[in-house]
Specification:
Helix Hairpins; 11 helices; about 425 residues; about 15% strand; alpha+beta
Length: about 425
């Protein structure tokens, strides 16, 4: 019988005191003695004696005779070693103690190193975004971000355990400075370009092909001229801001809606401006018919006559001073056909758009028109085309030209 079994028989737990063992033994023995004599009672008494002997066995291996029944003699026992389970338990507990001490020591050191590394990263991030803002604002002529600068100065003067929070605050404030600058530039774009274009340009001819009033050419130039137009100046500012990065992160990205506006204005600029001026260079050929010979297109001091397959180069410049734009007959004493759009800054487009555009592909445009067309057409109504029409052929830059009304009217901010 081992100690575990002995304590089970006694109904005790390992580690019970000697007095507790003795008391438990006497009560159980009295209960057995109160039973009628039998072989089972004798066996139970014997087992109980053995259990108390094992439970009360001291480290020398000798049972305590005081707990034995009267007349019971403890048999001689060999010396026993400490119970192996207790030794193993003590070793495990010792190992756990050492592990815990080492873990706390190493973990504390690791936590300290990680905290220090995180603080260093925060310092670097704050310094980088501060340097990016300083670079941008000096180039753009903007005032300092005072609140962010103050937070950064406090972080530099703070103790190590307080510095991290101050650097975080400084970084957030510099990021806010970039966001505020982006909103400021977009608000300027809306006020200085988008609203003037939508109210003073877009509703008028040629951006609205059916409008009676002209869009002011000078305003178009002021808003969209390459390099000097309001749109391109603000675009340069927005792109300079969007070029500021920290760790690969763009600090003020261009909004998607702005990029749509940019794409439209880029195409529109290529249609209207050539060599930096509001002008279009193209070549034209006229085809007359049997009734009207000697057809002449007049664009300023440039004349294009019908006949042959040769294209004549023309430069049409839109400006403050209106130029003569007419289509008529050169030799007729009383011209039977004469169309004059000289009162419009966009006269050439008004003249061409009287008629039906029958082809527009890769820079080649062809209009056919009624020989009796002397008045501007009713909006939305196609002009009448005779079997033997007069024809205007134009070769324009396929990369961009203003002659197609559908393409010109579709582009706006």
């Amino acid at each position: 019988m081992n100690r575990d079994q002995a304590f089970v028989i006694l109904g005790l737990y390992l580690g019970a005191t000697r007095d507790h063992i003795q008391d438990k033994y006497r009560r159980k023995r009295d209960e057995l003695l109160a039973q009628p004599e039998s072989s089972a009672r004798a066996a139970a008494l014997k087992q109980l004696d053995e259990a108390v002997r094992v439970a009360q066995q001291d480290h020398s291996g000798v049972p305590d005779s005081a707990t034995l029944a009267p007349g019971t003699t403890a048999p001689a026992q060999p010396q026993r070693k400490l119970f192996k389970g207790w030794i193993l338990l003590l070793l495990v507990l010792a190992a756990l103690g050492v592990y815990t001490i080492v873990t706390f020591a190493v973990g504390g050191e690791l936590d300290s190193k990680l905290a220090g590394r995180d603080t260093d990263q925060r310092i670097n991030a704050s310094r980088e975004i501060r340097d990016a803002w300083e670079k941008y604002r000096l180039e753009a002529g903007q005032p300092p971000a005072i609140e962010a600068d103050q937070a950064f100065a406090r972080a530099q003067a703070a103790k190590a355990d307080e510095a991290r929070a101050e650097y975080e605050r400084a970084e957030a404030l510099y990021a806010q400075a970039f966001a505020d600058e982006s909103r400021r530039l977009l608000a300027r774009l809306d006020a200085e370009f988008v609203q003037p274009w939508r109210t003073q340009v877009q509703p008028h001819f040629p951006f609205n092909a059916e409008a009676e009033t002209d869009a002011p050419a000078e305003l178009v130039r002021r808003l969209l001229a390459p390099g000097t137009g309001a749109f391109w100046e603000l675009d340069a500012s927005l792109r300079r801001l969007a070029g500021m990065e920290v760790g690969g992160r763009v600090l003020a990205p261009l909004p998607v809606e702005y990029m749509r506006t940019f794409d439209a204005m880029f195409l529109l600029r290529n249609m209207l401006f050539h060599d930096g001026k509001l002008q279009t260079q193209f070549a034209v050929r006229l085809t007359s018919n049997n009734r009207f010979r000697g057809l002449v297109l007049e664009v300023g001091d440039q004349l294009v006559r019908s006949g042959g397959e040769t294209y004549t180069p023309v430069n049409w410049q839109v400006g403050k001073a209106r130029i003569r734009v007419t289509l008529g007959q050169e030799s007729a004493r009383e011209p039977a056909l004469r169309i004059d759009e000289s009162d419009s800054e966009w006269g050439l487009l008004r003249l061409l758009w009287r008629f039906e555009l029958v082809q527009s592909h890769e820079g080649l445009l062809v209009w056919e028109f009624d020989q009796d067309a002397t008045a501007r057409p009713t909006p939305g109504r196609k002009p009448r085309k005779p079997p033997d029409p007069l024809v205007v052929h134009i070769l324009a830059d396929k990369q961009g030209h203003p002659f197609d009304p559908a393409a010109l009217g579709a582009l706006h901010p």
